[in-house]
Amino acid sequence: MRTALVYHEEMTAARLLWDDPECEIERPERLTAAVERLQQGGLEQRCLQLAAREASEAELGLVHSPEYVSLMRGTQALSTEELQALSAQYDAVYFHPSTFHCARLAAGAALQLVDAVLTGTAHNGLALVRPPGHHSQRAAANGFCVFNNVAIAARYAQKQHGVHRILIVDWDVHHGQGIQYIFEEDPSVLYFSWHRYEHGRFWPYLRESDADAVGLGPGRGFTVNLPWNQVGMGDADYVAAFLHVLLPVAFEFDPELVLISAGFDSAIGDPEGQMQATPECFAHLTQLLQVLAGGRVCAVLEGGYHLESLSQSVCMVVKALLGDPAPPLLGPMVPQHSALESIQSVRAAQAPHWTSLWQQGSTPTLSLSTCSPERTPSPVSPGGPKCKAAEAQTSAVLSSLLDQLHLSATPPVRMAIALTAPAAALVLPPDILRQEESASREETLAWARLHEALTQDTAFTALGKVLHLLNGILDGQVSSGIATTPAAASTLEVVLGQGLSHGAQRVFCVALGQLDRPPDLANDGRTLWLNIRGKEAAALSTFHVSVPLSGTTGGFLSCILALVLPLAYGFQPDLVLLALGPAHGLQDPQAALLAALLRGPAGGRVLVLMEQESTCQLVGVLARVLHGEPPPSLGPFSMASPDDLQALVHLRGQLEAQWEMLQVAGKAGGQG
Ligand code: Q9C
Ligand code: ZN
């Protein structure tokens, strides 16, 4: 895993030379603060550090007019008064004698990053640049941006490296109208932007920033705008936007390269954005994008004006790029009504162009608390639907602070694997631990006694190893693990019991194949059980859900994005168990994608339990994704079947009142 970090100190040279309250936030300290924080966190040293080069004028010409490039070249020789006069020709722009040099370095840094990733020198990377780029247009500077770094990088990747489809994800809080204009007729570049919009009352006040701007001519459907109409959007809103809008479309598009217009003015504390998303959220957003394009993700800095928030968010993105598990999201995971309205409107506007958006929003008619024979318990705060007692909140805050102390440190071992039989054919990265140790005989016996199947020789040995692995995860020694066993069902039951009694507040259990929910499992909100298999879609209770396994890539993806991950992020487990039972029916790339995405919700704490006879191939694939490598491609996109869609809509209808991360509409009965 190699992550490139492209930077050049000379990009700190440009600065505002006169009084302008609108422009003064775009300061050199933005870069120095971020770089210092990366050094302090030991992150810079883990990256492949590259010094930015200047983009050539021919390269700038991939996007900008020759006249505009000449005009910018001329700024190097202007007096302060002349610079100020030229700046006034544009909206929210200032020039400095070093601006041209800095802006060429900024564009060049993006090109170098693309070169490193597309030649295989690095797997992914970040370019720390200023001036930013996404507002800049063919012949105009705008919004602190001079050259459109990301747009130039996209055209360069296509021309120099023969890349066909590129996804640009613009998570800056402003609309990158420059990128939109450059690619609006081009179906080879999918541009996604969310932005503070407030029904058009926020800068840059453009009608074409709204959700109904979808691109022009052959580019229709390849511009995806998600306008936020209120400030205060947070982690739940951002994750919901990715799960319900960006990722379905992105998988269907199947990009070969992902460019991120990585502005951090969309993070908490930023004076421009006024949003609430935590720095940790940006690790999750990055991780969610790393399952695309074979992990070829290039992030390029755009905005971000609160130095502390900016620096922390940058660190989170770099950690995620390096493959470290993302810290858990600890705030309430309930999207805001206004966010759901925005999600609904962009899904409606894009539905004609993307089959992956065809499942309709549904009316939450059947509430489980009224239709289920089982009582709906209050789950343990904060990980579940609606429990807002004041004391519970206070103790939850305290315990999550304590959790954070314990959980935020990255475990020394990222991935351990405990096999029942030696697998010589299994080739793994060297820092994956092959665990030989077992839990003590007493501990193992105490659990084995409760299950006939576990007293048998191999099953008992396997149980000892599984318990040791689980304890390592619960103690924060190991992040994730894989264990094999000849008795998956009983072992899973023991792991659940041990997990819940030794430190885990909530466990999310995803069971595939012939594995039933243990009959005596308490329905106390501490275990969320999801079965993927069979024919039936049913929510047997708020905490017991069954969904069929789809045969199509579209159906499988919808199941993960529209059901599994919303439940997982809404539940906020501190451990995920992924159990592959007999006849689980998953293809290797499907299992890999599921495992990669399940690293998110529980801070990377994933334990995979597999039947002993699972192939070496599957064990290896899962080990690598849990170690942080990108999953292999699912293969060509095929539409979800009507039955798949019906199952998901049915489950959403049953569950969305309790699990609000499932919602895709602001009002009952909305479509999209
Ligand atoms: N208070 C970037 O983030 N001023 N550019 C808006 C609203 C211009 C932002 C005024 C903001 C430009 C790259
Ligand atoms: Zn911005």
From TrEMBL:
Residues 365-387 are annotated as: Disordered. The keyword Transmembrane does not apply. Residues 25-321 form the Histone deacetylase domain. It holds the Pfam family Hist_deacetyl. One of its GO terms (molecular function) is histone deacetylase binding. One of its GO terms (biological process) is positive regulation of mismatch repair. GO terms for cellular component: cytosol; histone deacetylase complex. It comes from the Eukaryota. It is found in: Nucleus. Keywords: Hydrolase, Nucleus. Belongs to the histone deacetylase family. HD type 2 subfamily. This is Histone deacetylase 10. It comes from Neovison vison (American mink).
